[in-house]
Amino acid sequence: MTRERSDRKGPERPRRNAPERPNRDAPERPFAGWLDEKELRAWRGLQLMQNQLSAALNRELTDSAGLSYIDYLVLAALTDRPDGRMRAFELGRELGWEKSRVSHHISRMSERGLVERQKCSEDRRGAHVAITKLGRKTIENAAPGHVASVRRRFLDLLSKEEVQTLAGVSETVLAGLAGECEALDD
Protein backbone atom coordinates (compact mmCIF):
# COMPACT_ATOMS: atom_id res chain seq x y z
CA MET A 1 0.00 0.00 0.00
CA THR A 2 1.36 3.41 -0.84
CA ARG A 3 1.47 6.28 1.55
CA GLU A 4 -1.63 8.38 1.48
CA ARG A 5 -1.37 12.12 1.49
CA SER A 6 -3.91 14.58 2.66
CA ASP A 7 -4.35 18.28 2.10
CA ARG A 8 -4.15 18.73 5.85
CA LYS A 9 -0.88 19.78 7.36
CA GLY A 10 0.95 17.20 9.40
CA PRO A 11 2.79 13.96 8.90
CA GLU A 12 1.90 11.44 6.23
CA ARG A 13 -0.30 8.58 7.31
CA PRO A 14 1.84 5.51 8.03
CA ARG A 15 1.89 2.49 5.77
CA ARG A 16 -0.67 -0.20 6.49
CA ASN A 17 1.71 -2.47 8.35
CA ALA A 18 4.10 0.12 9.80
CA PRO A 19 5.50 -0.63 13.26
CA GLU A 20 4.00 1.16 16.23
CA ARG A 21 5.82 4.08 17.83
CA PRO A 22 8.70 2.61 19.86
CA ASN A 23 8.54 2.56 23.64
CA ARG A 24 11.53 4.61 24.73
CA ASP A 25 11.86 2.59 27.96
CA ALA A 26 11.91 -0.76 26.17
CA PRO A 27 15.25 -2.36 25.38
CA GLU A 28 16.47 -1.87 21.83
CA ARG A 29 15.54 -4.73 19.53
CA PRO A 30 16.61 -5.04 15.93
CA PHE A 31 13.78 -4.49 13.47
CA ALA A 32 12.62 -7.95 12.42
CA GLY A 33 10.97 -6.75 9.24
CA TRP A 34 7.42 -6.30 8.07
CA LEU A 35 4.82 -8.95 8.56
CA ASP A 36 4.67 -11.31 5.62
CA GLU A 37 1.37 -12.00 3.89
CA LYS A 38 0.44 -15.00 6.08
CA GLU A 39 1.44 -13.22 9.31
CA LEU A 40 -0.51 -10.11 8.35
CA ARG A 41 -3.55 -12.21 7.43
CA ALA A 42 -3.42 -14.00 10.81
CA TRP A 43 -2.86 -10.79 12.81
CA ARG A 44 -5.51 -8.73 11.04
CA GLY A 45 -7.94 -11.65 11.11
CA LEU A 46 -7.49 -12.02 14.86
CA GLN A 47 -8.04 -8.30 15.43
CA LEU A 48 -11.11 -8.11 13.19
CA MET A 49 -12.62 -11.30 14.63
CA GLN A 50 -12.13 -10.14 18.22
CA ASN A 51 -13.57 -6.69 17.52
CA GLN A 52 -16.60 -8.03 15.65
CA LEU A 53 -17.29 -10.75 18.23
CA SER A 54 -17.02 -8.24 21.08
CA ALA A 55 -19.39 -5.85 19.31
CA ALA A 56 -21.95 -8.59 18.57
CA LEU A 57 -21.79 -9.97 22.12
CA ASN A 58 -22.10 -6.46 23.53
CA ARG A 59 -25.20 -5.70 21.44
CA GLU A 60 -26.85 -8.97 22.42
CA LEU A 61 -26.08 -8.61 26.14
CA THR A 62 -27.27 -5.01 26.14
CA ASP A 63 -30.54 -5.92 24.43
CA SER A 64 -31.27 -9.06 26.43
CA ALA A 65 -29.88 -8.30 29.90
CA GLY A 66 -29.08 -4.59 30.12
CA LEU A 67 -25.38 -5.43 30.52
CA SER A 68 -22.42 -4.40 28.44
CA TYR A 69 -19.97 -7.12 27.44
CA ILE A 70 -17.47 -5.49 29.81
CA ASP A 71 -20.03 -5.64 32.66
CA TYR A 72 -20.45 -9.33 31.91
CA LEU A 73 -16.68 -9.92 32.03
CA VAL A 74 -16.46 -8.21 35.44
CA LEU A 75 -19.38 -10.20 36.85
CA ALA A 76 -18.00 -13.45 35.40
CA ALA A 77 -14.60 -12.81 37.00
CA LEU A 78 -16.26 -12.21 40.37
CA THR A 79 -18.51 -15.27 40.16
CA ASP A 80 -15.46 -17.41 39.40
CA ARG A 81 -14.37 -16.72 42.99
CA PRO A 82 -16.02 -18.75 45.77
CA ASP A 83 -16.71 -15.63 47.86
CA GLY A 84 -17.71 -13.51 44.82
CA ARG A 85 -15.07 -10.87 45.38
CA MET A 86 -11.53 -9.95 44.50
CA ARG A 87 -9.10 -7.13 45.02
CA ALA A 88 -9.51 -4.29 42.54
CA PHE A 89 -5.92 -4.67 41.32
CA GLU A 90 -6.50 -8.42 40.73
CA LEU A 91 -9.60 -7.66 38.68
CA GLY A 92 -7.63 -5.13 36.66
CA ARG A 93 -4.85 -7.61 36.03
CA GLU A 94 -7.30 -10.33 34.98
CA LEU A 95 -9.08 -8.03 32.54
CA GLY A 96 -5.93 -6.24 31.35
CA TRP A 97 -7.14 -2.88 32.61
CA GLU A 98 -5.35 0.10 34.08
CA LYS A 99 -6.20 1.12 37.65
CA SER A 100 -8.26 4.13 36.53
CA ARG A 101 -10.38 2.05 34.15
CA VAL A 102 -11.16 -0.44 36.93
CA SER A 103 -12.09 2.37 39.29
CA HIS A 104 -14.37 4.15 36.81
CA HIS A 105 -16.10 1.02 35.59
CA ILE A 106 -16.65 -0.35 39.09
CA SER A 107 -18.13 3.02 40.10
CA ARG A 108 -20.64 2.81 37.24
CA MET A 109 -21.54 -0.80 38.05
CA SER A 110 -21.83 0.07 41.73
CA GLU A 111 -24.30 2.87 40.95
CA ARG A 112 -26.45 0.25 39.22
CA GLY A 113 -26.23 -2.09 42.22
CA LEU A 114 -24.32 -4.87 40.42
CA VAL A 115 -21.15 -4.71 42.52
CA GLU A 116 -19.97 -3.02 45.67
CA ARG A 117 -16.65 -1.91 47.05
CA GLN A 118 -15.63 -3.44 50.36
CA LYS A 119 -12.80 -2.37 52.61
CA CYS A 120 -9.84 -4.70 52.61
CA SER A 121 -8.86 -5.90 56.08
CA GLU A 122 -5.38 -6.96 54.89
CA ASP A 123 -4.52 -3.57 53.41
CA ARG A 124 -6.32 -0.45 54.60
CA ARG A 125 -5.58 1.33 51.32
CA GLY A 126 -6.91 -1.54 49.20
CA ALA A 127 -10.46 -2.52 48.36
CA HIS A 128 -12.33 -5.59 47.30
CA VAL A 129 -14.88 -5.55 44.52
CA ALA A 130 -17.77 -7.85 45.38
CA ILE A 131 -20.76 -8.99 43.39
CA THR A 132 -24.13 -8.09 44.91
CA LYS A 133 -27.28 -10.21 44.96
CA LEU A 134 -28.59 -8.15 42.05
CA GLY A 135 -25.32 -8.64 40.16
CA ARG A 136 -25.44 -12.39 40.73
CA LYS A 137 -29.08 -12.59 39.62
CA THR A 138 -28.30 -10.46 36.56
CA ILE A 139 -25.43 -12.66 35.36
CA GLU A 140 -27.37 -15.85 36.13
CA ASN A 141 -30.18 -14.55 33.89
CA ALA A 142 -27.77 -13.37 31.17
CA ALA A 143 -25.44 -16.38 31.09
CA PRO A 144 -27.58 -18.91 29.15
CA GLY A 145 -28.21 -16.50 26.28
CA HIS A 146 -24.59 -15.35 26.29
CA VAL A 147 -23.27 -18.90 26.15
CA ALA A 148 -25.68 -19.71 23.31
CA SER A 149 -24.41 -16.63 21.45
CA VAL A 150 -20.76 -17.63 21.98
CA ARG A 151 -21.55 -21.09 20.63
CA ARG A 152 -23.51 -19.77 17.62
CA ARG A 153 -21.08 -16.99 16.68
CA PHE A 154 -17.80 -18.77 17.47
CA LEU A 155 -17.56 -22.36 18.72
CA ASP A 156 -20.07 -23.93 16.31
CA LEU A 157 -18.12 -22.49 13.38
CA LEU A 158 -14.94 -24.35 14.37
CA SER A 159 -13.96 -28.01 14.43
CA LYS A 160 -12.91 -29.62 17.71
CA GLU A 161 -9.33 -29.58 16.45
CA GLU A 162 -9.51 -25.85 15.66
CA VAL A 163 -10.89 -25.14 19.14
CA GLN A 164 -8.03 -27.15 20.66
CA THR A 165 -5.44 -25.34 18.52
CA LEU A 166 -6.92 -21.96 19.38
CA ALA A 167 -6.87 -22.82 23.08
CA GLY A 168 -3.19 -23.72 22.83
CA VAL A 169 -2.32 -20.56 20.90
CA SER A 170 -4.22 -18.43 23.43
CA GLU A 171 -2.45 -20.06 26.37
CA THR A 172 0.96 -19.54 24.75
CA VAL A 173 0.37 -15.86 24.00
CA LEU A 174 -1.21 -15.16 27.40
CA ALA A 175 1.71 -16.84 29.17
CA GLY A 176 4.12 -14.61 27.24
CA LEU A 177 2.12 -11.52 28.13
CA ALA A 178 1.93 -12.56 31.78
CA GLY A 179 5.72 -12.86 31.79
CA GLU A 180 6.00 -9.31 30.46
CA CYS A 181 3.61 -8.03 33.16
CA GLU A 182 5.56 -9.82 35.90
CA ALA A 183 8.80 -8.31 34.62
CA LEU A 184 7.22 -4.83 34.79
CA ASP A 185 5.99 -5.49 38.35
CA ASP A 186 9.50 -6.38 39.56
Q: Can you lay out the helices and strands and say which pair or pack?
A:
Blueprint: H1 37-65, H2 69-79, E1 85-87, H3 88-95, H4 99-111, E2 115-119, E3 127-131, H5 133-153, H6 160-185
Helix pairs in contact: 1-5, 2-5, 3-4
Explain this structure:
- The chain is mostly helical and 186 residues long.
- A three-stranded antiparallel sheet has the order 1-3-2.
Number of helices: 6
Which spans have pLDDT < 50 for at least 5 consecutive residues? 1-15
Report strand order across the widest sheet. 1-3-2
Structural class: mainly alpha
Tell me the number of strands. Answer: 3
Taking the alpha carbons of the first and last residues, their distance comes to 41 Å
**Cα shape:** globular
User: Helix share of residues?
Assistant: 55-70%
Question: For the report, how would you describe the main beta sheet?
Answer: 3 strands, antiparallel
Strand content: 5-15%
Radius of gyration: 20 Å
Order of helices and strands: HHEHHEEHH
